[in-house]
Amino acid sequence: MPGFPSLLAHWPLLVVGLSVAFVSSQAADPAAPSPNKLPKIVVDVAHKGFMNEKGERFIPVGVNYYRPDTGWAPQFWKKMDVETTRRDFQKMKELGINVVRVFVTYGSFYSQPGQLDAEGLAKFDQLLDIADEFGIYVHPTGPEGWEMMPEWTNPLGNVHANHGNEVSLKSLEDYWTMFAGRYRGRSTIWAYDLKNEPSVIWDSADSQKKWDEWRTAHGQPFVPVPAKDAEPSEIVADYQRFRESLAKAWVARQAKAIKAADPKALVTVGLLQWSVPAQPVTLDQYAAFRPEVVAPHLDFVSLHFYPLAKGIYRYTGPDAENANLSVLESMVRECAKPGKPVVIGEFGWYGGGPLDPGGEPASEDQQAEWGKRLVEVTAPMVSGWFNWGLYDTPEAKDVSRLTGLLTFDGQEKVWGKEYAPLIKSMPVPSGIPVRPDLPWGTATVDELASERFQAEYLEAFRNAQP
User: For the segment 387-425, what is each residue's pLDDT rounded down to a tens digit?
Assistant: First the structure.
């Protein structure tokens, strides 16, 4: 998704443990019934989707929520205005939105090691109360570094370097123990998202040590960490599996901490589309959060997608559309194979990164048509969708400028009108279509293998169209 990476927590474990105990004992009871308390949403195993506790089907009609006037990256919590937020929820209710994804940040919620920030929690409580008022669920993601990282996280550097770092993992476990424990039983929270688009860095201060341990456990001799521009080889393939093992442990430990604090909480992680190498990616660009590896520790799989099959999507005709939709379907297919519900946690038109439509911007009708096609193509395997942004964000330096359901001044766009009715009309997932299977063993070590797969899948996708 558009935005900046965050940094993981770092602090002596004794201090963290003592602080966790203190904060947990001081927490208020936010789970007390509110006037319009929503029914708890659970996984519908039989239909690979969701339902409420009464057994009624629930389709997440979602949106990623932040405001266009809070600065980029979104500093929503620092500038949160209750009445403005209430008006936004009123608009979302009118649009048919039933879940909002919000980004919990270090700067507003976890600025000190081992304790949560009272001011951030108070604002989150207000957000939950507003959500209750309008019958909208909340999907918190975090913690993120979008409001600047606290100094105590700096020793370990970038978040992507630390998926195998014990101190970092312990700090995140403590965060979720406190946060999920505080909101235990608060049914307004639909699910927790561990992190927005995590990716295991290719090499870090810990990499050689962890790599040595992994190889020893598999009865293999010492080899140095391969270069990120290395030629395809068995060693490189092993290293990609090693990176996947770091991602698996990172997910498993946080999910376990959340479940211990709130056994009924739903857990997912927002997968960067480079978690599935269905189109060419470099060795280190592959995120290593392989769906079949992390899915056993999640309640559902959440994938993010922006159309970038052949560079930024420029709406030049059916060939470009099919190229992007076939890549999307192939990625969703890999996410659906583990048998858990699948959600598109972020999507938008154009592509990620800088907005470069190649001439005149596409029209609102083209945005709506792309959104419609995306939903229809993924519906056989997907149980919920989250549009990137409620509003267009003119000050953004990426596609967020035009991906909203509303214009920056609140005018309803064509896609805003069509979005919820379309999703609510989608049938229960029908199954995984018969298509070529992604050759994971080669696709993660050789860009040419991904390129060949992309071409093969596109042909099968075209042949399957009515």
Answer: 999 999 988 888 898 999 999 999 999 999 999 999 999
CA dihedral sign of residues 141, 143, 144, 146 = positive
Here the tokens at position 307 are 């159309």
Contacts of residue 436, defined as CB under 8 A and 6 or more positions apart, other chains included, come to: 330, 453, 456, 457, 460
Q: Name 131's bridge partners.
A: none
Looking at residue 45, what DSSP letter applies? G
| Bridge partners, residue 141, by sequence | 103, 193
What CATH number did the domain enclosing 303 receive?
3.20.20.80
Compute CA 167 distance to the chain's CA centroid, rounded to the nearest angstrom: 23
Please indicate, yes or no, if residue 1 is contained in any of the structural domains. no
Token pair of 54, please?
């009464």
In whole angstroms, give the CA distance from residue 16 to residue 261: 17
Q: Look at the pTM and tell me if it is higher than 0.85.
A: yes
**Can you point out the beta strands (E) in 257-334?**
267-271, 301-305
DSSP state for residue 427 in the 8-state scheme: P
- Within its chain, how far is the Cα of 265 from the centroid? 17
Residue 196 in tokens: 């927005």
* Rg value, the chain, Cα: 21
The helix or strand, by DSSP H or E, that contains position 196, with its residue range, turns out to be: strand 192-196
What is the side-by-side order of every strand in the sheet holding 49-52? 41-44, 49-52, 57-58
Q: How many domains does the chain have?
A: 1
